[in-house]
């Protein structure tokens, strides 16, 4: 079997159910391709579940300077396919669609003539088609349209309350709220959708986009058949100080639903990459922060190019480090443009499932209270998926404070602010278990108060142990 490239969205290891409840696509992006980062290939299967096959009959292709329309048609024709523009022109990527059954049959016939093995299934056909396209003139690279998977866990009952959100206090959010409410900041949630009718999210959802249906979402009647995206969104930006349910770490920030996962929890590379490009190129969907609670050990060049493009466009990228409990790199979190977040428990001890060695900071990710869907008002989940939106909320509060004083910092500088004000844990300095330490929203905002009017390119780290 061909290697299957996949990432697993980091859904809860533990889920606790709580009290029951009483237009068209984005415009075409700019054509200049983004520079590619150096991404080491990584193979293997995520420990959190089965690896879904790539999307059948689909190959993502990045064109070289010689890739004119004739060369593109010729390259696609090599596998009996056609070229489709899906909103990734800004990073020089197109989708080639072909008939996988016909292509596999053609290969089987050729193999039988040459005496080679003829057991070519559809998964292997996708990998072979990508390799054949990659050999054509005008092609920089080609890869199967990888799919990602959500991973679920068991459930029991409990009851919600603000005092059951110890992570908010541990990260200093109540103190930070006295400095900034994150008003006017938009956090894009690339996930399974957001239930914007939930009482804790009503009025906090901006217009988003459903990349499965290729249509905008209103921000009012959005749905989430899976539940993961709703939970993640509420941790970051649930309606706060409204005497209902839970509090959102980002207080006044808004979320935008960029739905890239289906009801079964599968996401393909094309949808995730298109969402990232849209955050930059379409003013209707422009975001300050993007939370990506998904990932896996295999790197996609298309997704990496979109990450570079989004960061260059001013979006602060935050992602979960992975729930495999290993030290292997997890993408997109391991990319240098991303604020990579591991998980700790309520006692600020590393969560047993949290990946190590590649994250910059840690945040609360065990039994985290968040909004549920359907008949479930609130739910507790555990995972680095839940840690990531805590860091995204800290970024939102900092971005809101900067906007109020007429400043806009680069994503790299805001990343350094969060990293540099993290409270050191474990061995002194950065270490494999805790990175630079636990996110401290209060210290980040206090540092902003100290640096008002400062235009230096970076924020030096501080030792928060004594504060």
How would you describe this structure to a colleague?
The structure is a single chain. Residues 1-50, 151-160 and 455-467 have low confidence and may be disordered. A hairpin with a 6-residue loop joins strand 18 (368-371) and strand 19. The protein is built from eleven helices and 19 strands. It has helices at 69-77, 100-114, 122-134, 166-170, 173-177, 228-237, 269-281, 301-312, 384-404, 411-420, 441-450, and strands spanning 8-9, 15-17, 58-63, 82-84, 93-97, 139-144, 147-150, 155-157, 186-191, 205-210, 215-217, 254-259, 266-268, 289-292, 316-320, 338-344, 361-364, 368-371, 378-381. The chain has 467 residues and is α/β, with parallel strands linked by helices. Helix 2 (100-114) packs across helix 3. The strands form four sheets. It has an eight-stranded mixed β-sheet with strand order 11-10-12-9-14-15-16-17, sandwiched between helices. A four-stranded mixed β-sheet has the order 8-2-19-18. It has two domains: 55-145, Alpha-Beta Plaits (2-Layer Sandwich), CATH 3.30.70; 150-450, Peptidase S8/S53 domain (Rossmann fold). It is elongated, with a radius of gyration of 22 Å.
């Amino acid at each position: 079997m061909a290697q299957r490239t996949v990432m697993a969205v980091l859904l809860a290891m533990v889920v606790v159910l709580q009290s029951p409840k009483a237009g068209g696509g984005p415009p075409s992006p700019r054509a200049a391709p983004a520079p590619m980062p150096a991404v080491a290939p990584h193979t293997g299967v995520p420990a959190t579940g089965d690896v879904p096959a790539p999307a059948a009959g689909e190959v993502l292709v990045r064109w070289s300077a010689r890739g004119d329309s004739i060369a593109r048609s010729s390259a696609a024709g090599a596998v009996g396919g056609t070229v489709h523009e899906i909103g990734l022109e800004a990073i020089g990527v197109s989708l080639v669609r072909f008939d996988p059954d016909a292509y596999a049959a053609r290969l089987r016939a050729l193999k039988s003539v040459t005496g080679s093995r003829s057991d070519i299934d559809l998964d292997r056909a996708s990998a072979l088609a990508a390799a054949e396209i990659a050999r054509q003139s005008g092609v920089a690279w080609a890869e199967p349209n990888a799919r990602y998977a959500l991973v679920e866990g068991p459930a029991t009952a409990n009851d919600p309350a603000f005092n059951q959100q110890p992570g908010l206090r541990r990260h200093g959010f109540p103190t930070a709220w006295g400095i900034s409410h994150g008003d006017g900041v938009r956090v894009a949630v690339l996930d399974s959708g957001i239930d914007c009718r939930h009482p804790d999210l009503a009025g906090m959802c901006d217009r988003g986009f459903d990349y499965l249906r290729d249509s905008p979402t209103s921000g009012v009647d959005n749905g989430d058949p899976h539940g993961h995206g709703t939970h993640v969104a509420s941790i970051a930006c649930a309606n706060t100080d409204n005497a209902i349910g839970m509090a959102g770490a980002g207080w006044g920030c808004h979320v935008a639903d960029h739905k890239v996962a289906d009801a079964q929890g599968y996401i393909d590379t094309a949808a995730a990459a298109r969402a990232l490009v849209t955050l930059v190129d379409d003013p209707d969907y422009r975001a300050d922060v993007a939370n990506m609670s998904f990932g896996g050990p295999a790197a996609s060049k298309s997704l990496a190019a979109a990450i570079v493009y989004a960061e260059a466009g001013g979006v602060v990228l935050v992602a979960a480090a992975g729930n495999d409990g290993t030290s292997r790199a997890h993408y997109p979190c391991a990319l240098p443009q991303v604020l990579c977040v591991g998980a700790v428990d309520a006692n600020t001890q590393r969560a047993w499932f949290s990946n190590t060695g590649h994250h910059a900071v840690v945040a609360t990710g065990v039994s985290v209270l968040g909004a549920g869907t359907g008949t479930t008002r609130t739910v507790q989940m555990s995972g680095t998926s839940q840690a990531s939106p805590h860091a995204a909320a800290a970024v939102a509060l900092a971005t809101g404070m900067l906007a109020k004083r007429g400043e806009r910092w680069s994503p790299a500088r805001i990343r350094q602010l969060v990293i540099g004000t993290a409270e050191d844990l474990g061995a002194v300095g950065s270490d494999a278990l805790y990175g630079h330490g636990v996110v401290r929203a209060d210290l980040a905002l206090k540092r902003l108060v100290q640096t008002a009017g400062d235009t230096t390119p970076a924020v030096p780290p501080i030792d928060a142990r004594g504060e």
